[in-house]
Amino acid sequence: MKRKQLAALGLAIVMAVGTVGTSGITVMAAETQTAGTEAEKESQNAEAESQTQEDLSAPQQDEQQTQQPVVGEEQDQQPVTGEELQTQQPEKEEQQEVQQPETESDQEVQQPGLEQNKEEKESMTEAEFIAMVQAEVDGLLADADEVIFGPLMYTEQSWKVYEAAKAEMLALRADPMKYYDPDGTQIYGIFERFVNAVNGLELIPEVVDKSELYELIALADQIVSQAEVYAPDYIQALKNVLATIDRNKIEAMTQAETAQAVAMLKQLLQTPVVSESGVIKLIEESRQMLEQLKVSGLYADQDLATIQTLLDEAQKAADSANWNEAIEKLNMANQKMTEIPMSAEKIKEALAGKVADKEYKDLYEDIKAHPENYDKNTTGFYVESYDQAKALSVSNETDVEKLYEALQQIEFAKSTVMKLEDSMKNFMEDMEKILESERKNVGKAGGFTKEDFDKMEALYNELKELLANPDTEKAVLQERVEALNNLLVTAERIEKEETVDPEQKPEQKPEQKPEQKPNKEEEKNEDKKKKSEAPKTGDPASILGLGVMLIGSGIAGAVGLRKKSEDSEE
Q1: Which stretch of DSSP H or E encloses residue 21?
Q2: For a surface tag, which of 309, 328, 333, 497 has the fewest beta carbons within 10 Å of its beta carbon?
Q3: 368 pLDDT higher than 90
Q4: Residues 562 and 475 in one domain
């Protein structure tokens, strides 16, 4: 049932509530009550007029009887003239009109039980009234359930109003007679509030994806910053569109507002307008992008040569002021750079280069020969990455994604390797901070027990003395570090005593975990994960294409503008 139907039903139900009589509850529709009131007024008027007419007619009858001639007696009455007859005729008609309601009134008087029978037919017992109200409440609640989605779909305030109105409805259903009054005011109010609450439920605003809008704004900002490339009118048009977008209120924009802003920006960005000098500048930028692709060593020589040829032809056409051809060749070159794939063979060559590189190779061999000189938590990842790169460089693997990930991994793994002395230094600095911060809480709720804290502090001081002795074996240092780290993890903390209100459910708190050791193992694994998800250097997917038009000479075309990646700039 629609919400308007809910409202109409609620009003109709309440208007049916009447008054309580000795034999039960009298239920009368509003229209019937109104009609009855008007009929009673007409009846009273008719009776008054009838009584007046009777009083007037009585003397006339007596007079007629007195004027009736007696047989044998002489009549002294004068004959009535025509004028007098006409004067008396309207009086007779008026008397007939006045007597007409008297007839209807007489009919009502002759049927004294009609109104009483009518009221008896419309009366109901208290049980029948309760059943009627409960049925109507159930109907409204069921109809509301059909149009309501659930509390998570509506604003908190509107849902609270609905819940309160629904509670009233349930209370009415539980005891209809509690809310009974002769004119139905209370029940009317409950129905009205419930219907209004259903109609007043406000949906939570839809979450609108703004990612495309943000990207277009960033692109528009980039173009505006290159005003020397584009026509002044075009730059101004972009500025005008950007000015219509309040960047501080983007997240509050509706779906329609977001779509409108996206459409306006797209319309301009799809057909940028450049000057002749702008075409020359775009050719130069495209050449720089091509050089970055060459330096990466990840693309086939033939694909790079094709792009180089197109850019040379674009430059030649521009030198001859053949702007139409220059734009066409420039667009083709940029399209090729957007679609160029990485070469599996080139990536394997890059892997082989890393394996053979002296810096990479010497580090690998030194870790193998003297593992005690390094933090073993950081060397495993590098050894694994080096072995993988070496195997793939001579394999038949053609999966470009897998090969490129291995190339990234070996570069990152090398940066995580730490000498033992560096790792020990970091560990001791971290332990000193931990002990200092925990010292004030020893023996207190939430802090370490005094016994365990004293053990940690003793191990720390012992390790500090060992590090100061140059003759200490590195294996002993590693052993003491592991012992201190394990104690830090397993040390007992004193539980906090909390005062719990017996009438309130205790708040569930997440389990407290002991602080982890300050080593690099977890950092290594986390960084490894992040690195595997990092954007690829020279990845064509990160290159942005942009069509442009040339004005000044009246020639239009399309040119691609590419955005340099941060990795390439480094």
Answers
A1: strand 19-21
A2: 497
A3: yes
A4: no
Encode burial over 101-128: b for 16+ CB neighbours within 10 A, e otherwise.
Answer: bbeebeebeeeeeeeeeeeeeebbeeee
pLDDT at 271: 81
For the sheet with 19-21, list strands across it. 19-21, 24-26, 123-124
pLDDT digits (tens, 9 = 90+) for 33-79: 444 444 455 555 555 555 545 554 444 444 444 444 443 344 444 44
Q: How far apart are CA 51 and CA 223, in angstroms?
A: 100
Statement to judge: residues 215 and 175 lie in one domain: no
What integer is the mean pLDDT of 226-235? Answer: 87
- Amino acid, res. 50: S
Residue type, 214: Y
Instruction: Find the helix or strand (DSSP H, E) in which 460 lies.
Output: helix 450-468
Say if 315 falls within a structural domain. yes
Tens-digit pLDDT profile for residues 491-539: 888 887 655 555 555 444 444 444 444 444 444 445 444 444 433 333 3
**Cα-atom radius of gyration of the chain, to the nearest Å?**
49
CB 413 within 8 A of CB 381: yes
Residues near 327 by Cβ (< 8 Å), separated by ≥ 6? 279, 314, 548, 550, 555, 557, 558, 559
Domain boundary, last residue among 385, 400, 416: 416
CB neighbours (10 Å) of residue 149? 9
CA distances from 2 to 139, 195, 528, 543 (A): 13, 11, 57, 52
**Bridge partners (DSSP) listed for residue 419:** 374
